[in-house]
Amino acid sequence: MRENGYSVEEMDRFKENGMSTKYLDDESLPYGWKSGFALIKSGMRVKRYLSPEGKHFNNRALAMKYMLENMFDSEDIIKMKLGFDTDGWINHENLPEGWKMKQKIGKKSWQGENSIS
User: Fold this and answer.
1) How far is the CA of 2 from the CAs of 6, 8, 12, 97, in angstroms?
2) Buried-exposed string 56-65: b where 16+ CB fall within 10 A, e elsewhere
3) What is the DSSP string of the chain?
4) Cα 101 vs. chain centroid, distance in angstroms?
5) Which end of the chain is more exposed for a tag (fewer CB within 10 A), N or C?
6) In this structure, are residues 101 and 110 in contact, taking their beta carbons and an 8 Å threshold?
C-alpha cells in the first residue's frame, strides 16, 4: 500500500476497518464497489462503502461525492444515485427538486443533485 501513496495513518485505518468490516458485492452499487457494516463506538452498525481503488467511505453521500469529483462513468454515477433510496433517503415536499433527506435519531441530513450536505 505504501507504494501506492497511502500514508501510515491511512494504512492503519484500512487495517482497522478491514478487521471489523466485511465488504461484499452490493446490487445497488456500480461494478467493483462493495459495502459492509461496521460497528461504531456507540454500538450501532453503520453501512460503509469500498471503492474499486480500495478507498473507504463512511456513507453513500461521500462515495457519490468522490465519484463526481473524479469523473466516474455517468452510468455508474446514476447507479450510485439510485441506491440512495435503498439506504433510506426519501423525497420530501419541503426540499428543492432533486434533493432527498434521511432522518436518523435526533438528526436530519440532506442531499441534493450536485451537493452533499
Assistant:
1) 5, 8, 11, 43
2) bbebbbebbb
3) -GGGT--HHHHHHHHHHHHH---EE-TTS-TT-EEEEEE-TTS-EEEEEE-TTS-EESSHHHHHHHHHHTT--HHHHHHHHHHHHHTT-B--TTSPTT-EEEEETTEEEEE-SS-B-
4) 15
5) C
6) yes
Residues comprising the chain, all counted: 117
CB atoms within 10 A of CB 84: 17
* pLDDT tens series, the chain, 117 aa: 566 677 777 666 665 555 568 899 999 999 999 999 988 777 778 899 999 999 999 999 999 999 999 999 999 999 999 999 888 888 888 889 888 888 766 555 555 554 454
**In sequence order, which residues have a C-beta less than 8 Å from that of residue 93 and are 6 or more positions away?**
none
